[in-house]
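Action item from last meeting closed. Structure (155 res):
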């Protein structure tokens, strides 16, 4: 029964991801939560295990996708070499600060999450609704560009 539920969940998550562009975790995490509950996993670990399992599926999928793009010549290794170390360092520092810092209270974590969401939303909105076809940072509100005030007022 569990194998069938996981198979159907994977199919449904794949369809949603392909049709709507949403991450599979939007389906996988709730199903894993329910399955882990039925398996008798202690309640204090269920959500952590569901999210961790969903996140763990990203690794092989990302590696296969990267290999596929590389075979087509669609990976710019110059940018990867330039940005890679900074992305890894930023992820490590951000994760460490968020997880291990006693300075960041729960309120600050919520504020940080809201700030990141707003910035991501503004960047996405700029990418979709920007009249200028250039991709320079001058027009991106995340970097304080000229459309920042216009987009902020719309939100």
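Sequence:
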């Amino acid at each position: 029964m569990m194998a069938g539920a996981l198979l159907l969940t994977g199919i449904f998550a794949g369809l949603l991801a392909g049709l709507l562009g949403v991450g599979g975790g939007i389906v996988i995490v709730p199903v894993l939560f329910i399955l882990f509950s039925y398996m008798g996993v202690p309640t204090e670990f269920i959500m952590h295990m569901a999210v961790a399992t969903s996140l763990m599926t990203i690794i092989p999928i990302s590696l296969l996708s990267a290999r596929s793009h590389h075979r087509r010549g669609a990976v710019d290794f110059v940018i990867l070499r330039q940005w890679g170390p900074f992305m890894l360092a930023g992820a490590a520092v951000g994760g460490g600060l968020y997880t291990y810092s006693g300075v960041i209270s729960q309120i600050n974590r919520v504020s940080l999450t809201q700030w990141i969401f707003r910035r991501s939303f503004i960047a996405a909105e700029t990418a979709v609704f920007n009249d200028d076809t250039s991709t320079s940072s001058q027009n991106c509100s995340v970097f304080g560009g000229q459309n920042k005030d216009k987009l902020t007022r719309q939100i």
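Note appended to the action item: The longest helix spans residues 77-100.
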